[in-house]
Amino acid sequence: MKAEIVAIGSELTDGAKLDTNSQWLSQQLTDLGIAVHFHTTVADNLDENVAVLKLAVERADVVLITGGLGPTLDDLTREAMAALREVPLEFDEPSLAAITEMFLSRGREMPERNRVQAMFPLGSTPLPNPVGTAPGIWMTIPRGTARPPAIVAAMPGVPSEMHRMFDEQVRPRLPVSPQAIVRARLNCFGLGESHTEQLLGDLTARGRNPEIGITAHEATITLRITAHGFSMGECDEMVGVARETIVQRLGAYVYGSEDEELEDIVVRRLIDSGQTLATVESGTGGLLSQRITNVRDFERCYLGGLILPSETAQRRELGLAPDLFSQGGAISEAVAREMAICCRARLGADYAVAITNDRGMEFGADLSLPAAIVAVAAPDQVHVLPVQRIGNRAIHRSRTVKSALNLLRLHLVEPQ
Amino acid sequence: MKAEIVAIGSELTDGAKLDTNSQWLSQQLTDLGIAVHFHTTVADNLDENVAVLKLAVERADVVLITGGLGPTLDDLTREAMAALREVPLEFDEPSLAAITEMFLSRGREMPERNRVQAMFPLGSTPLPNPVGTAPGIWMTIPRGTARPPAIVAAMPGVPSEMHRMFDEQVRPRLPVSPQAIVRARLNCFGLGESHTEQLLGDLTARGRNPEIGITAHEATITLRITAHGFSMGECDEMVGVARETIVQRLGAYVYGSEDEELEDIVVRRLIDSGQTLATVESGTGGLLSQRITNVRDFERCYLGGLILPSETAQRRELGLAPDLFSQGGAISEAVAREMAICCRARLGADYAVAITNDRGMEFGADLSLPAAIVAVAAPDQVHVLPVQRIGNRAIHRSRTVKSALNLLRLHLVEPQ
Question: Could you report the per-residue pLDDT of B138-193, keeping only the tens digit for each?
């Protein structure tokens, strides 16, 4: 079974907006075992919309459309679907009632032009939208006797409305693959992509079941495990064995699963042990604090952070001795170590993470030297780690912060 | 003249990667006056690639391709273009020399498989890639006597390589519209989208020249001015008049132009006047520092920042009196004011910006109350502003930080 995703809107083809819906829907369909072969984006033009949909039902069995369901003259998806099926649009009373109700709940009367959102191609099924005014449309298109009808579902372009409609209305209606599929992700930090591949060896061979894919994003390595089988139980077991084998081979490089970030693990560990954390940053300008304060319940362990861009500020706020800088400048192991120790004392925390100034953030930096140094002060010892610059400034910043979080994580997991 | 953008790669159709190239290229073509009608994304499958390209040269005059130029078996763009033109692939010596040189400059020998990147459809033009191994391909496809040949250009999928190749190799080869077009952007903060539209009145009417479009992103309003004329001079003049009219109507809500952010303006103003800034954040957890430290030369004015998530930390680090909190909790004008004043004194800065705790960051928050309070302490006065929550947590955080930066900007522009 092949699928095509169609995104409708001139704001997409002229570059004013980025389409993220097609990626999201591709992930959902891939997870259901339905292979997406095409994405098409088309401007608000009725003839072109109809031509695109005709081609889509020819070359794909499932066609998911986003956008073009609003109340204005530019919104042509309803008409295009009616033209595709060669039927008129008809009025749906329950949908009109729902739209009217949606406006009332926001304290407004329904504008006359929104009535058109209750029009549907004859024979199609309206898909309720509990969080917006545009209902979706579900219909099938006959393709002669030799092929099953194509499935066409249209959803709103607003991502939050589309996600909910897909989950509640579209996914349950899609034909289920007779095969069971289970997917899992393991996240690793501290290893390069090719080194990971080498350690995993035969596990990543193509065509293996479960299949294990490697993707890298800002130095986080994600292993995607996909098991195919006749039952969910069989798949779960295969995934379990694969996870164990991976953890055996990669050890503490594996830090979490699914959407977990390093900061999630660190915050959870600290809360569980009733310990506290403080941070001091120079070259990363608050990114470490940002990551920590985005974790739910962070306030139960995070006492606070200092952002000290200059040597002067570091000396003044942390009381670092001037001769500390005279030896190796603002980027040395000695400075990182003292920053962490003084920050820990100053904020009265069990642990402190420090990130020094960052040579890698300068424009035209000498990339052969360590760009920044990160340090972790624990109650009875200090860990220090230099970070090389790889990639552009934004990636380097993110990687430096992750290296600091990982240094703390490794200490919390297995104190040495 | 119509254009189509084609993105090639199974990592796009299966949702593993987000395609941002098509949006970027659409913006470039729209700026050149070439209307993009379609984006197509297709998996790594030769027959489907050829079919997609055949359709593209039928329905569009300019076809820009990204991806599929790598050295592996999955990379099919070369072959698909040769099949489209019905010609064989031939070897290009200069391209091979460039690829070999690229590897040498990275201290590596060229792997044998990369030789294929020097193969081109007969009669096509190789496009040099100064920052990667994959050269691009430029060719034209005849479409009978009634229509001009279609232009097809293939570029690498890596965005940085693609951007450079488009700028240096593709853009100069594209047919130029006989009309001149000049575009400009003005950025505003502090006004809603509909209020802005109201103040601009007739200026935003459709079909007007210059045309003025309004887009909103996390409470920043961007006005896009597009002037069409017979000469650049004529267009520049129209844009100049439009800018003046807009500034007359919106006043200090207009803060900058093109890519300028509020923090760019604030940092520049402070550096120009030789003044300094410190920050203290609670609910925004370092986002304000992040924005400031992303501006070039920020270290010339930014003395540092404190992130103090809890009342305890605020009292301890800033010496705020306990009874300050007993009156209105951690989110009150009095707390914001004292945070700013104490931070200014503590870091010895000319200005301090403070952001209190944030009710809007809590899950299930009461959104009828101001979510956070921001304050600016200047040498002789303090400004305070409550921020309501609108939108999700991430948007709210961004909006709160922007409101704080804007409060400082307004003081720097016109101290009261």
Answer: 999 999 999 999 999 999 998 989 999 999 999 999 987 777 888 899 999 998 87
Question: Which residue in the block uniquely carries the two structure tokens 């990147």?
Answer: B117
Which of B13, B28, B48 is closest, CB to CB, to A26?
B13
CATH 3.40.50.300 fits B2-173, yes or no: no
Question: Do A310 and B303 lie within an 8 Å CB cutoff?
Answer: yes
Q: Which two tokens stand for residue B177?
A: 């519209």
Number of Cβ within a 10 Å radius of residue A301 = 23
Sheet holding B180-189, edge to edge: B211-217, B220-229, B180-189, B254-257
What's the CATH class of domain A262-413? alpha beta
Of B51, B306, B347, which has the smallest distance from its Cβ to A304's Cβ? B306
Does the predicted interface ipTM exceed a cut of 0.85?
Answer: no
Are B11 and B18 within 8 A, CB to CB?
Answer: no
At position A69, the amino acid (one-letter code) is L
Show residues of chain A in contact with B24, CB under 8 Å. Answer: 15
Q: What is the pLDDT of residues A7-61, one digit of tens each?
A: 999 889 988 889 999 999 998 998 788 999 999 999 999 999 999 999 999 999 9
User: Pick from B286, B298, B304: which is nearest to A289 by CB?
Assistant: B286
CA distance linking residue B20 with residue B35, whole number of Å: 18
Contact A46, B37 (CB under 8 A): no
Question: Is the Cβ–Cβ distance between A387 and A399 less than 8 Å?
Answer: yes
Beta-carbon contacts of residue A325 (< 8 Å; ≥ 6 apart): A311, A315, A335
The amino acid occupying position B183 is: R
Compute CA distances B297 → A162, A369, A394, B302, whole Å.
Answer: 42, 22, 16, 9
Of B20, B37, B309, the CB nearest to A293: B309
Percent of chain A with pLDDT over 70: 97
The pLDDT of residue B157: 93
> Per-domain residue ranges for chain A?
2-173, 180-257, 262-413
The string of pLDDT tens digits covering residues A103-140 is 887 777 888 888 999 999 999 999 999 888 899 999 99
Q: Which residue in B307, B358, B396, B398 has the most chain A C-beta atoms within 10 A of its own C-beta, making it the best mutation to test that interface?
A: B307
Residue A175 distance to chain B (closest CA, Å) = 18
- pLDDT 10s digits, A320-360: 988 888 877 888 999 999 999 999 999 999 999 999 998 87
Mutate to test the interface with A, among B45, B217, B288, B290 (most CBs of A within 10 A): B290
Radius of gyration of chain A (CA): 27
Q: Which residues of A touch B38 (CB under 8 A)?
A: 13, 40-43, 48, 52
Residues of A in contact with B48 (CB under 8 A): 37-38, 59
Let me know how long chain A is. 416
Quick check: B289 and A289 CB within 8 A?
A: yes
8 Å CB contact of A285 and B299: no
- Dist CA B242 CA B213 (whole Å): 12
Scanning every residue of chain A, which has its alpha carbon at the shortest distance from the alpha carbon of B4? A13
**Which of B16, B38, B215 has the CB atom closest to A40's CB atom?**
B38
A131-150 CB burial, b ≥16 within 10 A, e <16: ebbbbbbbbbbeeeeeeeeb
Predicted model pTM: 0.78
Work out how many CB contacts closer than 8 A connect A with B: 186
Residues of chain B under the 50 pLDDT cut: none
pLDDT at residue B377, rounded to an integer: 98
**CB spacing of B39 vs A43 below 8 angstroms:** no
CB atoms within 10 A of CB B148: 11
Mutate which of A6, A20, A23 to test chain B, going by most B C-beta atoms within 10 A? Answer: A23
Q: Can you name the CATH fold of A180-257?
A: Alpha-Beta Plaits (3.30.70)
The residue count for chain B: 416
φ/ψ of A320, rounded to 5, equals -70, 140
